[in-house]
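Progress against Task 2.4 (sequence-to-structure conversion) is shown through the following example record, which the project officer requested during the mid-term review.
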Amino acid sequence: MEILIKALQLILSLSILVFVHELGHYLTARMFGIRVEKFYLFFDAGGFSFFKFRIGETEFGLGWVPFGGYCKISGMIDESMDTEAMKKPAAEWEFRSKPAWQRLIVMVGGVAMNVVTACAIYIGMSWQWGESYIDNGDLRWGYAYNELAEEIGFRDGDRVVSFDGVAVEGNFAKIYSDMVIGGVRRVEVLGEGLEAEGAAGYVLNGDDGRLPNGDDGVPGDDMQDGVPQYDDALQGTPRDDAAGDDMPDSVPREIAIPVERTAEMLDSPDFMTPRVPFVVLQVAPGSSAEAAGMAAGDSLTTLNGEPAQFFDQYRDALTAAAGKNVRIGLVRDSAGVKVGRTLDIAVSPEGTLGVGVGVKTVENFFPIHTRRYGFGEGIAEGFRRTGAEIAGYWQQLKMIFSPKTKAYKQVGSIIAIGNFFPGEWNWYIFWRVTGFLSIILAVMNLLPIPALDGGHVVFTLWEVVTRRKPSDKFLERAQMVGMLILLAILVLAFWNDIYRFFIK
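Structure tokens generated for the chain above:
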């Protein structure tokens, strides 16, 4: 069912975008009196279509191949390669008979419609949903990093401060893409020095496992979101600031991002994730976790006697302990009193703490900022976001064509695009992805490849500048070369997806 829902969202999204793209060509062609022979959503391969009808000189229809579509303009050399029609004398209503400036407008009509569509989508999203996000500055425990990030120099708990000397602010979800796609070369972080050396702010306190101590010696009275706060991990002095900005163990350092690892970073969605404490959200009745005594609200503090308060600290450790027993220290709020306990729990073969343990997520620990847009503000935000998305995707294309980054390895086919959508229907995500795909379609079609709109634009501009029109024979051969280039890109994209999803 998940695959079906993704497929339906993909087909609907592409149908909308292809329709408006071809509509741009149709409207501009008709504006200059150019005949449009066929306008189809989906391809009518073999001449078969679900339905078709004629209005004036144009046949409209719905093909049976559910991807793409086309607008066949009379007197234009396109993917149909209708060379026979080009051998006849040019009629006044044909594309090739019109002035260069009119043909140029027809060629960019599709791209323009995709940009307008993306802008309309972003304006509508601003009005309907506004913008909700968790601010990077609120992530007081920093980020958890994967193996690739650690090889580059990041450490769990590092908080991102700046990119190339520019302060990092706003939505944490955009930080990683801004870093990779923006070509950032230097990242300044604040790291927790003592914690990196293995001390996480706990002292032994009896047989109940490791418990936090406050200044007054009462276990566990300095808690925040179920997590102890400390200045000195060895002495148990409570922290002055949960974020640690004023702490001696907050160590600033600079990390160099190697350009040759760009492709790996693009293929590493878990490169950095917000670090959160391991606080149990729910425990399924009858599960082994419940049998061991775990309950909702428990804050895990130690693993086999070692300090471990964050979820990422358990992820790899439990995988390594799959099928074995582990000793978990935790803190529980019992009628307003923090009580420490130690549990022996069997780790499942999958490396989890029994069955049915739900863990609190990022949204449970940090404030969610929401910005609402009025009528005028929503329009301005839509234009701003459209420009930002175009600039961002252009940066991605530059990376793909730069051998040093090896970003070409991340070119994806329809399989990768389908995975942009979630396994359940979500209109917010659907329109967000559709808006981005509209930008992709616009930018890609402007590439100077003969089979694309951009190729036709280049030839038309050449004609305007030199006052010499390329011959039909030249345009036919250029179209064939362009189609071979697109076929090569398609093969690369499918191979990348096959390797990524089925081999790697």
